[in-house]
Structure formats: C-alpha cells, structure tokens
Backbone:
C-alpha cells in the first residue's frame, strides 16, 4: 500500500509534527504513475528528436495529449497510445510503458525508455524521404 504524509497545522512555531500517513487508493497511484511515465516518454522523444535533428536537414515536432503522443517529421509520423504505436502506412504495433520505467514493444523483451526513445527518434529522422 502507498502512503502520503501530511503535516499538521502549526498552532505555534516549533509545534508542527508529521501526522500518521493516510493510505492512497491503488488506482490513484497507478494513474499518477502512468501520467509520470507518459510525460517522461514524451520528454525523452522530444529530447532525442532535437538531438538527432542537429545532424539532419529536417525538424521533428512532438505533440502531446493525455491519450496520444505524435512525433512528426515532414510527412512521416509515429503515434503512441497507451497500448500501441502507429507509423504512417504501417499496421499498429503493441506498445506499453511499464511501471519499472521500461518499454515493451511488439511483445519483445523490455528495453529502457531512453534507449527506445532514441531509436524511434533516430529512425524517423534518418528514414529516407
């Protein structure tokens, strides 16, 4: 079970103390964790796209919403949702962000988020026109 600690209100200076932790519902933790992982994934894609864009004549744009992340380069794009990734002109591939900070792609072994984000950014920025 996960807990959140709350401070008591201080009636007088020096009289503050930490109250007993209140349990958080498990679904609240999972939702918050998913939001953090989703935000981190978008940030990694944005960072690696910018880095690979330094050696490219193209510029990548990352669009983020609560339900999808889209990485665009000219007329090419990758669209991530919580359960798949789509590449323009290709069928969807299974995709999942894992609680341990890894990515599962196409039911293959987990890989670190930064390694996967770098590969996606490199491939879309170096893909022939």
Residues:
């Amino acid at each position: 079970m996960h807990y959140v600690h709350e401070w008591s209100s201080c009636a007088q200076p020096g009289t503050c103390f930490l109250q007993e932790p209140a349990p958080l519902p498990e679904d609240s933790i999972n939702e918050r964790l998913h939001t953090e992982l989703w935000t981190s994934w978008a940030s990694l894609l944005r960072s690696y796209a910018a880095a690979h864009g330094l050696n490219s004549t193209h510029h990548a744009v990352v669009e983020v919403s609560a339900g999808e992340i889209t990485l665009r380069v000219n007329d090419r794009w990758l669209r991530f949702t919580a359960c798949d990734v789509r590449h323009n002109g290709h069928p969807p591939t299974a995709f999942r962000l894992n609680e341990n900070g890894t990515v599962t792609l196409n039911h293959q072994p987990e890989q670190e988020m930064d390694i996967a984000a770098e590969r996606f950014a490199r491939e879309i920025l170096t893909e022939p026109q």
